[in-house]
Structure formats: C-alpha cells, structure tokens
Design brief:
mainly beta; about 15% helix; disordered N terminus; about 260 residues
C-alpha cells in the first residue's frame, strides 16, 4: 500500500448528506471493534485489509481482520498509551492513511512528544502532485465539518468530546479538566463552526448554554451522538458530530473535497 496522498482543493461549496464521510470515531476496545460500514467499505474499495494510523510525526500499519484491528494494533496501543476505554478520531487522507486524534477516558486529547496539529491536506496535495503527476489515481468526493486545510491550535486549548444527552437539551456539560480551558470567565462565548456555518454559543457554569438548543435542533442531534470539538483558537472550535455507529453526520453546509489514492 502506497503512503502518499493528496486532496483536491475543490471545496467550500454546499454538499448533500449522500456524500460519504471521511471522519470516523472508534472505541479502543482490545478486540472485536464494531467498525462502521463506511469504514469497512473503504477497505473493500481499495482491495486491501491494511491501514496506516498516523499520529503526528509517526505512523503504524494495522491489519484489519474479521471486523477488528489485529496485527500492529497492540504495538500502536503500547506506543501511544492507548487504553481500553479511549477513543480515536480517524480522518481519511487517502491510500487508507488515517490521521488520528487520540482521546483518553477523560474525553480530552492525549498529547505525546510526536503529536503535531492535523496536517493541511491541501498543502500536502501540492507537494504530492509534483512527485506523482504520472501515477494513476482514483478519487472520491467526501464531506466533513472539518475543512481539509484546517489549522488546529494546540497552544491555547485542546480537543475534547462530549456525548449528547437528550435529557438536557438546553445545555451541554463541558468535560472535567476541560473547564481549565473553557469556562464562563475565560471564554464567556465560543464560536462553533460546522462546515461553512458558525454559531456563537454562550458559556455559563461550565456548560455550553446560550443558543445551544438552536444548535442541536439545526444539527438534528440525537441521544448518544458524539460531538468532537477541535480548536482553531482559544474561543473558536470546529465541531464534528458522529452518529451512534461512529460515522460523521453530513449536512448541506459542510465542506466537500476530493481524496485521492493510488489506483
């Protein structure tokens, strides 16, 4: 399996929910993962049962067998201190290479010496095109709340996730330990981006509160769906919403772009 990738800059226009997602959320149980159908379809389309998990400056090859991660998974978990109840966000970058954001059980990103911000896929496309201009490729148009040239900020805040509870629709609790970065005094308002749409959310008593109910109605949030918040700055986040199978939900205002793999 080749390790180069590229992404087309044909994005920033309205899409529709029929486009496939490129982001997935997986629970890190030791064996027998329930992999989303879309995730397994990617392997079938590439006629390959091996993927690459890339965490910052390092990467690991993983064999997928019988709906679970097998060869290479134990080494990945050991090197990245992945525990049984951790969660991985996987963003497909082409050629079955997935950039990883690793969350611990406390629902916040795990930062290791080789952790760096998510790569700018559009910039990488320019570099790759110079080297692979004569290489046959296949392309797939995908959609995501996260734009391909997203600039992740690791200095002033941290990625975190929270599970939506329909019993408290008017607010969302900020996870423990995240309130050091997000609280009513330090960040009284957050700008939450989902694709090309932005919503200003008020923070009160360690909860996302003002305008939150409108946000959940517009994004059709269902009980037990997961929201992942990726920081652009101290008070600006992009939110990705995952259904209960671990596939990112797609809305008409999301970014669309092409992912390329070697044919």
């Amino acid at each position: 399996m080749a390790e180069t990738m590229s992404v087309s800059p044909t994005n920033f226009h309205p899409t529709n929910s029929s486009l496939p997602a490129c982001c997935f959320l997986l629970k890190c149980i030791h064996r027998g993962q329930v992999l989303p159908t879309q995730f397994e379809l990617l392997l079938h389309q590439h006629h390959c049962n091996r993927i690459i998990l890339r965490v910052g400056l390092r990467q690991w090859t993983i064999t997928v067998t019988d709906h679970s991660f097998e060869e290479g998974w134990d080494a990945f978990c050991e090197h990245n201190i992945v525990k049984r109840h951790d969660t991985l966000l996987l963003r497909h970058s082409g050629n079955l290479i997935f950039d990883v954001i690793h969350f611990c059980e406390l629902q916040k990103q795990v930062l290791l010496p080789w952790t760096v911000p998510l790569p700018d896929l559009l910039h990488m496309n320019v570099v790759a095109s110079r080297d692979d201009i004569h290489t046959p490729t296949r392309q797939q148009q995908v959609a995501s709340s996260l734009r391909p040239n997203f600039c992740q900020d690791l200095s002033d805040s941290i990625c975190f996730y929270q599970i939506f509870n329909s019993a408290t629709p008017n607010s969302l609790k900020i996870p423990r330990f995240i309130d050091h970065f997000i609280n009513g005094s330090k960040t009284p308002k957050l700008l939450i981006n989902t694709g090309n749409k932005s919503t200003q959310i008020g923070v009160k008593h360690e909860r996302l509160h003002q305008n939150w109910r409108g946000f959940i109605l517009e994004h059709q949030l269902q009980h037990n769906e997961t929201l992942v918040f990726v920081p652009e700055s101290e008070n600006i986040f992009t939110a990705l919403i995952f259904d209960d199978t671990g596939v990112e939900k797609i809305f008409p205002w999301y970014h669309t772009f092409n992912i390329y793999s070697h044919a």
